[in-house]
Amino acid sequence: MIDLHTHSIFSDGVLIPAELARRAEHIGLRAIGITDHGDFSNMDFIIPRIVAIAEELNPVLNVRIIPGIEITHVPPKLMSDTVKKARDLGAKIVVVHGETIVEPVAPGTNIAAIYAGVDILAHPGLISEDDVAAAKDKNVLLEISARRGHCLTNGHVARLAVKIGAKLIINTDTHTPGDLIDRDFAKQIVRGAGLEEDSFAIMQENAAALI
Questions:
Q1: For a disulfide at 4, which of 33, 35, 77, 153, Cβ 3.0-4.6 Å?
Q2: How many domains does the chain divide into?
């Protein structure tokens, strides 16, 4: 399994990157994105450190670490500049913290992220059909989330993505050891979102193509 949305102690996760990677390896993950929460205040601290640990650990682990960032609660008008800064700092995956219904994310964040060319729009909440169509056009992956709270709108996201033809990805948004999941549990989440059984494999192909 590939999981491209996790957090370490560099934001609000509880594990150092090495332990996060080892736990992911232990349950059989092929690749893991370490995508700590960031904005202009801390990306220059987080991203180079994740890049460095990936360079150290990837040659000796059976799980590949992908350095990234989750741009979080950045005003929509600043999104494009923030995404560019993240890529300049070495982020291989840029995730944006979408308009989940359980947090006060600024309206317009979803579409700003899509037009900024992010890789993954995480937990996009009650995303509109127009925004899903834009995600399809811009080849932005829409996240089906395993995380409590954020997962409440998985069915809505899945339904619109299937209707419009946008690509999906499943991620855990891991913060603690218990948040990591294996393939079998991920498949159950996909089915719970109302998707066909083969959707998990397609999501994994989308993740593999991204990395």
A1: 33
A2: 1
- To 10 degrees, what angle do helices 43-57 and 17-26 make? 50
Q: What is the pLDDT of residues 121-143, one digit of tens each?
A: 999 999 999 999 999 999 999 99
Q: Give the number of residues written for the chain.
A: 211
What is the domain-level CATH number for residue 109?
Answer: 3.20.20.140
**Neighbour-count burial of 153, counting CB atoms closer than 10 A to its CB (0-12 exposed, 13-18 middle, 19+ buried):** buried
Closest CA to 51 of 35, 29, 63, 72: 35
pLDDT (tens digit, 9 = 90+) per residue, 15-36? 999 999 999 999 999 999 999 9
Domain that holds residue 115: 2-210
Task: Please state, in angstroms and rounded to a whole number, the distance separating the CA atoms of residues 42 and 97.
Answer: 16
- What DSSP assignment string belongs to 141-162? EEEEE-STTGGGGHHHHHHHHH
